[in-house]
Amino acid sequence: MSERGFILCVSGPSGSGKTSLCDRLAEEHVFVRRSISLTTRAQRSGETESEDYIFVSHQDFEQMRVGGLFLETAEVFGNFYGTPRQPVEAALAEHDVIVMDIDTLGANAIKKEYQKNCVTVFVHPPSMAELERRLRGRKQNTPEDLARRLKEAAREISESSNYDYQLTNLEFRQAYEELKRMVFAERRILTP
């Protein structure tokens, strides 16, 4: 048996816990790398440059997009996000897993381009009421922003049937163990 590298696209509504799940996976396993997206949005309190995101100007982002340096790009709530191509291809070449938390549009674009080397996981919140509670608990959203995020969550959940795997983040430890089982199962390749 040998092991394969692949792109692990993890999607779910804001507040579902997808980022924490991805972070834990990368922290605990040497064969898992974290994809760091570039964004034009302002850095939030508590975020670390080059760990959470790489923060760039609109002009720099557009130059990189035109230069073909992204696997995918998206506009989310007026800000641009992009997945850099080079770290993903380097991870695949070294048979590592590169994990990214990414919206449904980005996951679809990457799955289309990398078909056999991409595994998609959708993280559901326990309920919309719990999702709203989590988002309110962050105390970072205006009422308008909260309404937009909940509307977007409903749209994303409606697309979850397109994913290879789905899990519900009712309790973090249990959701993480389920994600880990998925990754280890996908990593194994039987050799003839």
Structural notes for this entry:
This protein has 192 residues and is an alpha/beta fold. The chain has one domain: Rossmann fold (3-Layer(aba) Sandwich), CATH 3.40.50. It is 43% helix and 24% strand. It has helices spanning 18-28, 58-66, 85-93, 104-114, 128-138, 143-158, 172-187, and strands at residues 2-3, 6-11, 32-34, 38-39, 54-55, 70-76, 79-84, 97-101, 118-124, 165-168, 188-189. The strands form three sheets. It has a five-stranded parallel sheet, sandwiched between helices. A four-stranded mixed sheet has the order 5-4-7-6. It has a two-stranded antiparallel sheet with strand order 1-11. A hairpin with a 2-residue loop joins β6 and β7 (79-84). α5 runs antiparallel to α6 (143-158). The longest helix has 16 residues, at 143-158. The chain is globular. It starts with a strand and ends with a strand.
